[in-house]
Amino acid sequence: MGDLFWNKVAAAVIGLVLMVMVIGVVGDIVFPEEQHGGDEHASLAYPIDLEAVMGGTGGTGPVEEEVIDLGTLLANANASSGERTFRRCVSCHNAAPGAGNLQGPNLWDVVGREAGTYPGFAYTAEMSAHGPWTYEALDSFIENPRADVPGTAMSFAGIRNEEDRADLLAYLQTLSDNPVAFPAPAAPEAEEEMAGDEMMEGAEGEMTETAGDIEDQMQALEEAGEAVIDDQAGDGAMPEDAPEEGGN
Q1: Integer Cα distance of 173 and 42 in angstroms
Q2: N or C: which end of the chain has fewer CB within 10 A?
């Protein structure tokens, strides 16, 4: 056996050891070992930190704001609080049945009414084409009127807090002899299913990223091993059992 052969063997062994070390380090990072009840022996399980995978406070990803459906918000809304919020609107809107218009149209019976149809008020073309005032449409408009209906003449800047908007919508519901029912809250099963799908997508993305990192490490080790072999070959080493030139 020549020196080149043993150099190849040594390079292969070193590469294998480095590969095992890299896989072990990556495994410790992705699947941290967990102790239970002060036991000196570590658990054999490696729980996945879903909070970190999903970008929670324990991870490095962005914290996503929880989205609550409008039906749930309205089910917990307070019409009395909404009446206080409505005080910001009384300079431009009447709310009593049969009352006239001010700078804005009368808001009595506004929920369910077709936009741009209250008698005696000059609406913009954009508002007239808006459609019915459902709770969802009112919520979107109250949040940011100019963004929701570009071209509206309403100068109100909007209400960004979703709970304040829900309270105001609950008060607007009372401005009618035949109040429109709130939309039903989203079913808990549907919310859990959506949350589960988001968690699975996040976990799959993390696993794909980890697999890519391991593949990069393997490629780097393979290239390092080839470089070692090439360096040894470049030294001109010759196997001992190679025949000499001109020999028989």
Answers
A1: 59
A2: C
Neighbours of 35 (CB within 10 A): 10
DSSP 3-state of 150: coil
Burial (CB count within 10 angstroms: exposed 0-12, middle 13-18, buried 19+), residue 158: middle
Cβ proximity of 86 and 199 under 8 Å: no
pTM metric for this prediction: 0.52
Q: Write down the number of H helices and E strands in the chain.
A: 9, 0
| d(C-alpha 165, C-alpha 70), whole Å | 10
Give how far the C-alpha of residue 38 lies from the chain's centroid of Cα atoms, to the nearest Å.
36
Cβ neighbours around 23 below 10 Å, total: 13
Residue partners of 236: CB distance under 8 A and separation at least 6: none
Q: Which domains are assigned to the chain?
A: 1-32+46-63+208-248 (no CATH), 70-174 (1.10.760.10)
